[in-house]
Amino acid sequence: MSDPPSVKPNTKAKKAKKDATKKDSRSSAPKPPPEIKLSFSEQLGSDLANGLVQDPYSLKESLNLIDRVTFVKLPSPNITNPITAPTDASIEQELTDLSQEPSLLTDDCGSTDTSASSDVVQHHPKTKIREIFDLNDFTALASLQELIGLYGRVSHMGVLDPSYTFYITKDRTAALYYKAKNKIAVVGGDPLCPPSLFPKILTEFEKFRKKAGLGIAFMGAGETFVEYIRTQKWTTMCFATERVLNPMTNPVLHGSAGKSITRTSRNLLDPKKEGLTLKVYTPLLGKSPALQQQLVNVYEEWRDHRNDSKLPQAYITVYDPFAMPELMTYIYTADRAGTPNGFAALRILGCNKGYHLDPYVASPGAPKGISELLLFGAMALLNTAQISYLSLGYEPLDDLGEIHGMPKSLKSMSRKVHKMIFQGLHVAGKKDFHDKFHPDEAQSSMLYLVFPPGIPGLRHMQGVVHVANIKMREAIFKGAKVKGEEKKSAEAEREKVEGRPGGLLATSERLFSKSRERLHVSALVTPRKSQEV
């Protein structure tokens, strides 16, 4: 009996079923997320932020309990990484450097390393260096740094200027800093304290300055302090504005404006072109005296070049960039050899929950566009850190804003003199540079000059312009020359249109106006004895 014929399986059907099963398994498997491509500004900000991330294993040798506990709590504390803690030699060097720093502190008892009655309290390398310190010096300095960190504003940029002196109350709850000129203590910005302590610091400082024979004026006061001081009938003049960038929304950073700035920044960092590198440094993650000296050299070279250029130096602060490293972060550019050729400093503004960028400069002869790159990089870093406030500093107004506490006739005269000074300073270029980066007008604020009740005396005005580094005589007469040329041009145009000369009356009016301005200018630029304090 023969076997029944065997039925061959449908191989094609099996293969099709197998392929369908594979296809279903592939479709059900999760797809890897697409790789996110960062924009130029995002990548730049991320790279700079990575430079501020501390290696946790570098905490192994720290004696700070917070650092040590952080290290012990790491998942694998036995892993050994290179230690970046300072050596005994570097600690000894830092102590040596600290002992050479002159004290800038004055408490309400009047203790200071120079005579309080001197006209100008200067602290510079030629000053005799103190060798004796006590615990009060260190507690005062710690309190001062805390107050600056909490209440610092853009007008407190002078805290890094060694020519200023600090005053701090006995209970260490409030402070201010000032420079004495023409027997006037010109205070920078608002008092460093909460508004509730404004009366306290003013009262205590008044006792101190009266003993020293000093009057008082404020330069760069903010709107909060001005609101209070007007209730005390003090005189205020709006003379400048603070321009602020918002790194979270800035159109230049996000590519919708300022294409040339982004293009220049790319070219400077392109290895095939300029080949610069942009780096970040903070002494809190390990002090590098060699790098700090290189950055100081960049700053000093820039200052020397600017001084030689005969450009106006108004509102230029001379910094010791590393005087308060706890408040600072530094961004710098380096050439192909690794030598820094651009330098920017970011200072914490505790009152605004942001930063102030100043200075941001390049060495003479460095590639063009480094200042823009430093500013662009600072915005990128703050964007990564989700900080929305980057102050660009003072921007003087070409015309005085609101004036309170002064007769109408003197208001008019003050506006004319300010106009002449401003025209002689040629600072319009600063505004043009800021405008390229599209400041956030919603965050801008006004800055004020503040004087005691009544009409400001000549010494008050002279003290302020000296502290602002304005050469009064030079600026006023340059401004008067510019104004005269503008008037002459306008009159010539009018005569051309009307077809007749200005006449004797017009000439007489011009001569009378000039003589009146000269009389007022002469009173301002010629010191005169006064009994006001």
From TrEMBL:
**Basic and acidic residues: compositionally biased ranges:** 484-499
Under the heading InterPro entries, the entry gives: LPG_synthase_C (IPR024320), PG_lysyltransferase (IPR051211)
Keywords, A to Z, come to: Cell membrane, Membrane, Transmembrane, Transmembrane helix
Native organism is Lachnellula arida
Q: What is this protein called?
A: Phosphatidylglycerol lysyltransferase C-terminal domain-containing protein
Specify the taxonomic lineage: Eukaryota, Fungi, Dikarya, Ascomycota, Pezizomycotina
State the GO CC annotations.
plasma membrane
Name of a matching Pfam family:
LPG_synthase_C
Where in or outside the cell it occurs: the entry states: Cell membrane
- What domain of life is recorded for the organism? Eukaryota
The residues covered by the Phosphatidylglycerol lysyltransferase C-terminal domain are: 154-446
> Which molecular-function annotations from GO does this UniProt entry contain?
aminoacyltransferase activity
Q: How does it sit in the membrane?
A: Multi-pass membrane protein
Segments for region (Disordered): 1-38, 484-503
Q: What Gene Ontology terms for biological process does this UniProt record contain?
A: phospholipid homeostasis
